[in-house]
């Protein structure tokens, strides 16, 4: 992302953490040893720009095909000196179906991701296995022999097939490690966070037709699916 976008996202995220305090992330789920924000499309124009970035959407299309929608937009900040590690998981507990892959996530590094500060571990190739780690591993929290760490400089955006087994590691430093996750799903699956229900009337009114389509605000099938099945996480209860 550009330096201006990176700085703008950092500033807005910090403002929201300050304003929301202990409520931060409560629209979806909260997590021990990590601060979260949720429902971010509702919380500023800068987030609308991020979810519709053409370079990112082109990568998402490679995973999901031409018809997809935003599933959720969250921030996760690993607490300093904390065991904020996660079990290996696939997002939304998703297994590829007869039509192929249906979840794709993007990791927006708002701080450097290093080997010490809670970078994501991933098991390359596991998206092809059509199994969930909790069903295949004796201990999804334990290190996996095939795992690698996702490291990079602040400002990097990584698009990943979210069927791939992955999970955050512990932050062993005194600094924060903030990441934004713009999560997309195939058109025929429910949104993780039902955007039409979460977005205020004011936010919905200002959106362009392109953004309304990306958020599935006028999609009757999405209304049916998401009103009944939204809320699934790969590991959070």
Q: What is the CATH architecture assignment?
A: Sandwich
CATH top level is Mainly Beta
Q: How many independent structural domains?
A: 1
The CATH topology label is Jelly Rolls
> Largest sheet, if any?
5 strands, antiparallel
Report the portion of residues in β strands: 15-25%
| Intertermini distance | 32 Å
Number of helices: 8
The total strand number stands at: 8
Strands of the biggest beta sheet: in what spatial order? Answer: 1-2-8-3-6
CATH superfamily: q2cbj1_9rhob like domain
The average pLDDT value, as a whole number, equals 96
**Secondary-structure element order, as H and E?**
HEHHEEEHEEEEHHHH
The gyration radius over C-alpha positions equals 17 Å
Q: What gross morphology would you assign?
A: globular
Poorly predicted segments: none
Structural category: alpha+beta
Helix fraction, binned, reads: 25-40%
Could you give the topology of this structure?
Elements lengths: L2 H18 L13 E4 L7 H7 L2 H11 L3 E11 L24 E7 L10 E3 L10 H4 L11 E3 L6 E5 L4 E3 L8 E10 L8 H4 L2 H6 L2 H6 L5 H10 L8
Structure description:
With 237 residues, the chain is α+β, with helices and mostly antiparallel strands. The strands form two sheets. Strands 1-2-8-3-6 form a five-stranded antiparallel beta sheet, covered by helices on one side. A three-stranded antiparallel beta sheet has the order 5-4-7, with no helix packed on it. 28% of the residues lie in helices and 19% in strands. 39% of the residues are buried.
């Amino acid at each position: 992302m550009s330096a201006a976008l990176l700085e703008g996202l950092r500033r807005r995220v910090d403002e929201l953490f300050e304003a929301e305090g202990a409520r931060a992330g409560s629209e979806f789920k909260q997590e021990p040893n990590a601060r979260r924000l949720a429902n971010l499309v509702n919380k500023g124009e800068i987030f609308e720009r991020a979810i519709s970035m053409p370079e990112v959407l082109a990568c998402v299309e490679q995973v999901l095909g031409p018809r997809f929608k935003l599933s959720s937009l969250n921030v996760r900040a690993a607490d300093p000196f904390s065991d904020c590690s996660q079990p290996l998981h696939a997002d939304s507990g998703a297994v590829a179906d007869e039509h192929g892959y249906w979840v794709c996530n993007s990791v927006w590094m708002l701080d450097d991701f290093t080997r010490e500060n809670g970078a994501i571990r991933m098991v390359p190739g596991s998206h092809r296995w059509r199994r969930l780690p909790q069903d295949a591993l004796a201990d999804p929290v334990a290190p996996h022999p095939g795992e690698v760490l996702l490291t990079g400089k602040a400002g990097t955006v990584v698009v990943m097939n979210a069927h791939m087994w992955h999970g955050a590691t512990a932050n062993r430093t005194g600094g924060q490690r903030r990441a934004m996750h713009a999560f997309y799903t195939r058109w025929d699956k429910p949104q993780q966070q039902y955007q039409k229900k979460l977005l205020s009337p004011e936010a919905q009114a200002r959106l362009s037709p392109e953004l309304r389509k990306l958020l599935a605000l006028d999609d009757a099938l999405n209304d049916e699916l998401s009103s009944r099945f939204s809320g699934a996480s790969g590991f959070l209860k």
